[in-house]
């Protein structure tokens, strides 16, 4: 992968792209080539949809919700591909199963960590509601409002220990991106090539989320990928655009890359000095304007977090049902092939 300051090499300027994608000497039937081509073209369009319309749209709650929704579509696409390949679990190499089960557990752990942080941010809305409720004009109520806003600041700036584990998990997923080599299965080669693309995009999006929630770019890395995939050009474009903007956001001194949270924090900072020593009658109109503004921004933040939580939960269930389906098929296959060993085989697979 070329460095950001260097021009990217031309992307597949001529010839058959599949000779770059597959090992020398590999043969795929026209049907398999068509399936792989259709999947990678679809993945390219999914990746392109991740690029925000402008810098102001990067890492907004609406973008994050769309990104998770795109992940759901991508993981559904690969399930459809598996069905179209007519590649039953009994024909899967044991290495593939190891990788899939191991990765699914790690992705589920990341989803749980993200959901807990979304809940943490949403709980901060209660402090804002209490603070806004107490802005009725008396000095005693202003004191309560200040206390609530102080509580909000402390709550928002608190750290979620589960996020620290996410970075270690993402590092592990990144290190294992290169899947086992496929020797004698044409369908297996197509599946592994598709799974590689799914895993790259998944790790990238979840890494962006982890950096956003943690409030730090120290773990922001440019994901290394093969430059022979049909979706590479689109991915590099999105990766560079978003990574550069995140670095710019944090270098400017902002507390978070999440736009809606930053807007609310700015509104609180404007309102707080006004109520610190009581409000002068001449400032009543300004107080009303600032209160209305904070109310609007707080509701937008809370609503956006709710939508993101729903999509994160949907992605979690897609991962979980995929894992459950594989384990179910392993049980069926084990029962058919050797009923006496079914219990041992299932236990061995489930702990991976």
TrEMBL record:
Name assigned to this protein: BPS1-like protein
Highest taxon of source: Eukaryota
Pfam family, one: BPS1
Originating species: Solanum verrucosum
Regions crossing the membrane: 196-215
Keyword set, alphabetical order: Membrane, Transmembrane, Transmembrane helix
InterPro entries given in the database record: BPS1_pln
GO biological process, one term: shoot system development
């Amino acid at each position: 992968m070329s460095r950001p300051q260097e021009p990217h090499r031309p992307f597949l300027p001529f010839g058959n792209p599949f000779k770059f994608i597959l090992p020398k000497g590999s043969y795929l039937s026209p049907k398999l080539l068509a399936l792989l081509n259709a999947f990678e073209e679809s993945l390219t369009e999914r990746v392109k949809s991740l690029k925000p319309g402008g810098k102001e749209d990067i890492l907004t709650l609406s973008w994050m919700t769309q990104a998770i929704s795109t992940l759901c579509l991508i993981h559904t696409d690969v399930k459809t591909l598996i069905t179209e390949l007519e590649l039953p679990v009994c024909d899967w190499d044991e290495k593939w199963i190891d990788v899939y089960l191991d990765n699914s557990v790690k992705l589920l752990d990341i989803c749980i960590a993200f959901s807990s942080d979304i809940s943490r941010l949403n709980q901060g809305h209660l402090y804002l509601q209490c603070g806004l409720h107490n802005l009725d004009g008396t000095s005693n109520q202003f004191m309560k409002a200040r206390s609530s806003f102080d509580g909000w600041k402390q709550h928002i700036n608190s750290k979620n220990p589960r996020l620290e584990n996410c970075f270690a998990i993402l590092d592990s997923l990144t290190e294992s991106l290169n899947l086992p080599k496929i020797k004698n299965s044409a369908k297996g080669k197509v599946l592994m090539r598709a799974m590689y693309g799914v895993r790259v995009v998944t790790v990238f999006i979840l890494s962006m989320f982890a950096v956003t929630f943690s409030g730090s770019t120290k773990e922001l890395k440019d994901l290394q990928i093969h430059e022979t995939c049909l979706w590479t050009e689109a991915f590099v474009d999105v990766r560079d655009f978003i990574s550069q903007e995140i670095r710019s956001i944090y270098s400017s001194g902002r507390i978070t890359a999440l736009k809606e949270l930053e807007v609310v924090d700015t509104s609180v900072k404007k309102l707080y000095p006004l109520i610190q020593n009581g409000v002068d009658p001449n400032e009543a109109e300004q107080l009303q304007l600032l209160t209305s503004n904070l109310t609007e921004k707080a509701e937008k933040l809370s609503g956006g977090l709710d939508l993101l939580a729903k999509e994160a939960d949907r992605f979690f269930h897609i991962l979980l049902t995929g894992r459950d389906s594989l384990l179910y098929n392993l049980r069926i296959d084990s029962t058919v092939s050797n009923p006496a060993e079914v219990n041992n085989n299932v236990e061995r697979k489930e702990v991976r």
